[in-house]
Amino acid sequence: MTEQEYEFELHLPDKSDFDEKDINQLFEAGADDAMLSLQDGHVHITFARRAESLLKAVISAIEDFRKSGVDGTIRRVNNCSLVTKAEIARRIGISRQQISNYVHGLQGPGDFPSPDCYLGEGQPLYLWCEVAWWLEQHQFVNNFSAFDEIDLAIINAHLA
Fold first, then answer.
1. Which helix (DSSP H) or strand (DSSP E) does residue 48 occupy?
2. How far apart are the first and last CA of the chain?
3. Which positions ≥6 away from 131 have C-beta within 8 Å?
4. Rounded CA gap, 7 and 20, in Å?
5. pLDDT cut 70: percent of the chain above it
6. How many C-beta atoms surround the C-beta of residue 118 within 10 A?
7. Residue 145's pLDDT is what?
8. Reported confidence tier of residue 133, pLDDT bands at 50, 70, 90
9. Bridge partner residues of 127 (DSSP)
10. Phi-psi group of 150: left, alpha or beta (phi > 0 → left; psi -120 to 50 → alpha; rest → beta)
11. CB hemisphere CA count around 15 (13 angstroms)
């Protein structure tokens, strides 16, 4: 299995700030692919990690965080990356035209998730977690990366 890059966030709701010491500790523990940020008054650590699977990427990031000694408890992992229609099609193994048909309500039940933002005029970006949920709810997928979503649900249940 070849490695690819996975983007995800670790949420630390009990930590409301960070400093250079935290950044250095993470870096020294192997999390040189991490970026700390404050969102809604809580610390989030965003990773762009190369691994053979999302599960392996997340587990190694959690291990690096725990090794670092940074105060805080990981309560949740979020894999809500932005994707294009082409990326959605690639992830689930169907054509871009089929995705466009879902987006424009030409096929399927309608109510496809709205774009989260735009890369440029006419280039919508969607939240993968919303799209994956929609595809799953309407049974338009057969064993795509739903396994990643299941793995994350198990990890999040364990963290909770």
1. strand 42-51
2. 30
3. 83, 88, 112, 113
4. 23
5. 94
6. 10
7. 56
8. confident
9. 82
10. alpha
11. 20
